[in-house]
Design a protein that fits this description.
By secondary structure, the protein is mostly helical. The protein contains 5 helices and no strands. It is elongated and about 50 Å long. Residues 49-79 form the Rho termination factor-like N-terminal domain.
């Protein structure tokens, strides 16, 4: 039997955002133990795709080994990267 979720509100919000049960429970329990702001500040330094230039998005697509990105506009690149 798994441990109960310690922050039900956060767990439900994470599930609604499409996170797995395991990931949502892990984040919610860490937030309950350490405080939400502490857990949130631990995240990576990734930029939002919307804040990147088309050239940076194309570089990211290349890093990921995607094909067919060279003629895409910014919105199409963002969709392609998110769907990968």
């Amino acid at each position: 039997m798994s441990d109960p979720v310690k922050d039900d509100e956060l767990y439900e919000r994470l599930r609604e955002e499409g996170n797995s049960k395991e990931k949502s429970a892990r984040i919610a329990n860490a937030a309950a133990n350490e405080g939400r702001s502490q857990v949130g500040s631990r995240g990576g330094a990734a930029e939002d795709y919307e804040d990147r230039t088309v050239e940076e998005l194309k570089d990211r697509a290349k890093e990921l080994g995607l094909e067919g990105y060279s003629d895409k506009n910014k919105d199409e690149l963002i969709s392609m990267l998110r769907d990968h």
